[in-house]
Specification:
The structure holds two protein chains of two kinds. Chain A is mainly α. Chain A contains two helices and one strand. About 4% of the residues of chain B have low confidence. The chains are: A mainly alpha, B alpha+beta. Strand 1 of chain A pairs antiparallel with strand 5 of chain B.
């Protein structure tokens, strides 16, 4: 009888230990007391992030939002569009604003009347 | 009543010179049939001492070619801000460029000279192609250029 009682206590204790460990592993750690029981699983999850075969999808598509159109495009810089040596534009002076898109320079030569007009016949 | 008249006289006196300080001037440049690509032209003004006073027009929008407009480039160091808002397309051989500008009266009969530099791709640069004093008497009188410009005239 005493032997049977000992076996029952031992099996109950063993079941309780196994059950508590498993339950702790399944649940999140709400406090520091249960932390040691879940550390094994959580640390494993943190140290082994899901790595995609290619991380080039999705996350960088909107890098150029709000930037100039020619950044990242296949076409050439519009300021330097030409059929010859485009690399001359790199580091060079910017092209001036065309007539009608900006006011004439304030060099004292122009009045305040009609804006400059030009035509080629 | 007396002060009102004085105020009216004052405002009229201040307004009239402002209206008369500038006038529309048409600059007409006709190119020769030189058989090349479109010409880059720059029209600029020097004062009585020969110092650069400012630019009037740039025909040609690519700043990388401005170094071929040698006189203008030398006095401006190629500063494209000098031609912001007064830049148009280059001019083809045999074509006529007609520009209408509202120019200050002070430019005329005061020793100012209008210069035109010209350049054509794969052809010789032509600085000071035209140099014409700005006078009321010279208005409407055509002037021949040296290489690419057949004639230039300004009309008021």
């Amino acid at each position: 009888m005493k032997k049977t009682l000992t076996l029952l206590v031992a099996s109950t204790a063993l079941t309780a230990v196994i059950g508590t460990t498993g339950w702790s592993a399944m649940a999140t750690a709400p406090n520091a007391i249960q932390r040691p029981l879940t550390t094994l699983y959580e640390d494993g999850a943190k140290s082994l992030p899901v790595i995609l075969a290619s991380d080039d999808d999705g996350d960088d598509d909107d890098e150029n939002h709000g930037a100039r159109r020619d950044h990242g495009d296949d076409d050439h810089d519009e300021d330097c569009e030409d059929d010859d040596d485009d690399d001359d534009c790199i580091g060079g002076a910017p092209d001036p604003a065309t007539a009608g898109t900006a006011a004439p320079p304030q060099n004292g030569l122009f009045g305040n009347g009609a804006p400059p007009q030009a035509q080629v016949n | 009543m007396k002060s009102l008249l004085a105020a009216l006289a004052m405002t009229t006196a201040l307004t009239l010179p402002g209206l008369a300080m500038a006038r529309p001037v048409t600059l007409t440049t006709t190119l020769n049939s030189y058989g090349g690509d479109g010409a880059y032209l720059v029209l600029f003004v020097t004062d009585a001492t020969g110092a650069y006073a400012g630019s009037l027009w740039m025909a040609g929008g690519k700043s990388k070619y401005y170094e071929h407009l040698t006189d203008w480039h030398r006095v401006t160091n190629g500063d494209t801000a000098q031609v912001d808002g007064i830049t148009g397309a280059s001019v083809g051989a045999g074509r006529t460029l007609e520009i209408t500008l509202d120019l200050a009266d002070a430019l005329f009969d005061a020793g100012y000279t209008l210069h035109i530099d010209a350049a054509v791709e794969d052809m010789r640069d032509s600085p000071n192609e035209v140099a014409v004093p700005l006078t009321t008497e010279g208005a409407g009188v055509p002037v021949a250029g040296r290489r690419y410009i057949a004639s230039f005239a300004y009309d008021m």
